[in-house]
Automatic annotation (TrEMBL):
It comes from the Eukaryota. PANTHER family: PENTATRICOPEPTIDE REPEAT-CONTAINING PROTEIN (PTHR47926:SF452). Keywords: Repeat. This is DYW domain-containing protein. The lineage of its organism: Eukaryota, Viridiplantae, Streptophyta, Embryophyta, Tracheophyta. Residues 422-514 form the DYW domain. NCBIfam families: PPR (TIGR00756). Signal peptide: none annotated.
Length: 514
């Protein structure tokens, strides 16, 4: 073409983006700018979506500069694309500033911002925005509701989950495959696998993802047998399993100690179903064998792998070494892990904890010093509890809550009752070289203990207490909660970073296999 107008450029940029040819999309956009052509509100959103999909913040910032020069900073389509790009690139504060400055926000923009907060780990703000959106007079569609349901799943807030479900029923949204599957995931991650199963059974249409999500739900609730029971049912409905299905099945076997069943599934997935094992399946197998103490077999599996090893695989091996106190193998796994992810503080913390458990305080100190040199900080532990549709958050030793005095008072009297019933604090979970008395004091103010104490104060007697923790619950807190469930006659449901624990009458659903 001798002459190219803005429409011609837009068609080329948008065409490459739609075709998935991201390199040519960028190249054509650069050529457009060099030719002094004026990008419009059709071209710019396409380029910004490419930046989003590649999580290319640098390019996204450059395109933002072009937006400002083009005078399109208040255009609704362009602004929505900018908010989406910054949110997906996890620069959530910049996304929020743009969002707040928009004079008119449509449903798409609200949905993008709600999803952005959930993806960045602030699902609480997602749900706040959802309420504001409705107060602003906007009626959500199914896409918005899927986003909100996913945010609620991340937060694990059961009361909010029930309100969202009631709203979906009120608005007469049909539970299609996407929304229904999201609802299954939400209820399961809010602690009720039974409600998840009700939604699952009530869905007219289910795809392979729906079945896989339900299998996974049973898995992280420790109900491995029920997860395996779904597999033949799925096949009888004519749904062929895929890689995600087998990840869910192997995960369920791992968390229920079903080693033989897991090995059988791993062996037939390629031969019978044509699903080639990838690194995620191998990671599940390392976790399965490692938890069961079969570290030699886990190591042999790693050595014979033909797929590229990733951080998840080495993390599974390192976690197994922590359980079985295998320090030498832990060092080898940690070395491989730190080569892949040198900036992840969790890996350093896990290795230092293994050293501490083995009484190797000098080695632990070296790891902690290395973290300091690399400016890495341990991820702080938080525990959330939902009471009266409000989220209350606690950290270790927290005294910021308005009822802090009552919470600590109840916790003190509770511990006294527990000790009379046979509870002995396990100071091995305080990984510092300090006096025993100091260790006990540290244990007594763990965030999950504070959240449960608040739950006892703030909820009716006999009702379940549900808490969510961002890290793995420690062994002492696990024992503590078992005693509390027996003494208070309360069911306590704990969701940690790995799985769910249902405590009732002094026992846990995990059978102490976690």
């Amino acid at each position: 073409m001798r002459e190219r107008d803005p429409v011609s450029w837009s068609v080329m940029v948008g065409g490459f983006a739609k075709a998935g040819d991201l390199d040519n999309c960028f190249t054509t956009f650069r050529e457009l700018i060099r030719c002094s052509a004026q990008p419009d509100n059709y071209t710019l959103p396409f380029v910004l979506r490419v930046c989003r999909d590649r999580m290319n913040l640098l390019m996204g910032s450059i395109v933002h500069g072009v937006v400002l020069k083009s005078g399109l900073c208040l255009d609704q389509f362009v602004c929505a694309a900018l908010v989406d790009m910054y949110a997906k690139c996890r620069v959530i504060d910049d996304a929020r500033k743009l969002f707040d400055d928009m004079p008119n926000k449509d449903l798409v923009t609200w949905t993008v911002m709600i999803d952005g907060y959930a993806e960045c780990g602030n699902a609480k703000e997602s749900l706040v925005l959802f309420d504001w959106m409705r107060d602003d007079g906007l009626v959500p569609d199914k896409i918005t509701m899927v986003t909100v349901v996913n945010a609620c799943a991340k937060l694990g807030a059961m009361q909010k989950a029930r309100l969202i479900y009631d709203y979906i029923c009120k608005m007469k949204f049909s539970l299609n495959v996407i929304l229904g599957t999201a609802m299954i995931d939400m209820y399961a991650k809010c602690g009720s696998v039974d409600l998840a199963r009700e939604v699952f059974d009530g869905m007219r249409e289910k795809n392979v993802i729906t079945w896989s999500v339900m299998i996974a739900a049973y898995g992280y609730h420790g109900q491995g047998k029920k997860a395996l029971d779904l597999f033949p049912m799925m096949s009888s409905c004519g749904i062929m399993p895929n890689g995600i299905t087998f990840v869910s099945l192997l995960y369920a076997c791992s968390h229920a100690g079903l080693v033989d069943e897991g090995l059988e599934l791993f062996n037939i997935m390629w031969d019978k179903y044509g699903v080639r094992p990838d690194v995620k399946h191998c990671t599940c197998m390392v976790d399965l064998l490692g938890r069961a103490g079969r570290l030699d077999e886990a190591l042999k599996l790693i050595e014979n792998m033909t797929v590229e090893k990733d951080d998840g695989l080495w993390s599974a091996l390192l976690a197994a070494c922590r359980i079985h106190k295998h320090v030498e193998l832990a060092e080898w796994a940690a070395k491989s892990l730190l080569e892949i992810q040198p900036q992840n503080p969790g890996h350093y913390v896990l290795l230092s904890n293994i050293y501490a458990n083995a009484g190797r305080w000098e080695d632990m100190a070296k790891i902690r010093n290395l973290m300091t040199k690399r400016n890495l900080k341990k991820i702080p532990g938080w525990t959330w509890i939902e009471v009266d549709n409000k989220i209350h958050q606690f950290s270790v030793g927290d005294k910021s809550h308005p009822l802090s005095k009552e919470i600590h008072g109840l916790l003190k009297s509770l511990i006294e009752k527990l000790e009379l019933a046979g509870y002995v604090p396990d100071t091995n979970f305080v990984l510092h070289d300090v006096d025993e008395e100091v260790k006990v004091g540290m244990l007594y103010t763990h965030s999950e203990k504070l959240a449960i104490s608040f739950g006892i104060i703030a909820t009716p007697e006999g009702t379940p207490i549900r808490i969510t923790k961002n890290l793995r619950v420690c062994g002492d807190c696990h024992t503590f909660i078992k005693f509390v469930s027996a003494i208070t006659k309360r069911m306590i449901i704990v969701r940690d970073a790995n799985r769910f624990h249902h405590f009732n009458e002094g026992a846990c659903s995990c059978g102490d296999y976690w």
